[in-house]
Automatic annotation (TrEMBL):
Domain of life: Eukaryota
InterPro entries assigned: Haemolymph_juvenile_hormone-bd, To_sf
Pfam families xref list: JHBP (PF06585)
Source lineage: Eukaryota, Metazoa, Ecdysozoa, Arthropoda, Hexapoda
Species: Dinoponera quadriceps
Protein name, UniProt field: Uncharacterized protein LOC106742093
Signal peptide span: 1-17
Keywords on record: Signal
Record Gene3D superfamilies: Haemolymph juvenile hormone binding protein
Amino acid sequence: MLVFFALLVVTNSLVVAEHTDLVGMDLPLLIRCSRQASPKHIGICLKQSINSMKHYLETGIPNMEIPSFEPYYTERYEFIPKGENNGTLDLTDVRVYNLTTFVIKQVEVNPNVSQIKLEVHFPSIRFFAMYDINATIFGMYLQRRGHGIDGHFIDTLANVTIDGHYVIKISNEEEYFSVRKVSVELSMSEAKINLDNKINPDPLVNNINSFLTDKSKAVAHNIRPQLQMAAARIIRVITNKIYMQYPIRFLMPT
């Protein structure tokens, strides 16, 4: 879940950063890139452009309906574990921190700029939420609700590939970029999860917390597949909404 939000930061940054023609003086720090430059130059420019968005991501851009990502807030997220960890984990009042401390390692585009590849490093991501759980966690069944949960994802590396093609809208004869496929590969050094057990303490929760601490690398491995699928699906929806709203001549001028 957390990496999904982080990926949205980077993806939305890339799009908005090119969009200075429409935002005017609202985003004076943005760096824009030319579509006619070489793929190598565009990749370098996009890296600078995304980094120039960090200030705006911290504060948000209300008139463009972009919320603050420091912290990022969402009302609800449902996580459904697979394999030996199965059941449901419903998180509410979710707050995610350190999403704007990302480091862009690499940005690549193909010759006609129809494929964008991002390699992004997040040194540390933290989250806090309330949880409602009905699941088996590493062989221990827990049903509990109305308590806090916090987590720490360490050294997360995200490789995102966005594939699309250019289309002409009949309504205005303008050229747009349509996203066809998004793939996400994640790797995390550790995923440290802690279930709050201060109110109405339950010995089972203590046991689960100890196990989660000892198996932080296994936790990262287990949650990765669902995070990758969720991130790819939602990034595709969000990017298509943005790319298909504005002609490419505004997003990447010649």
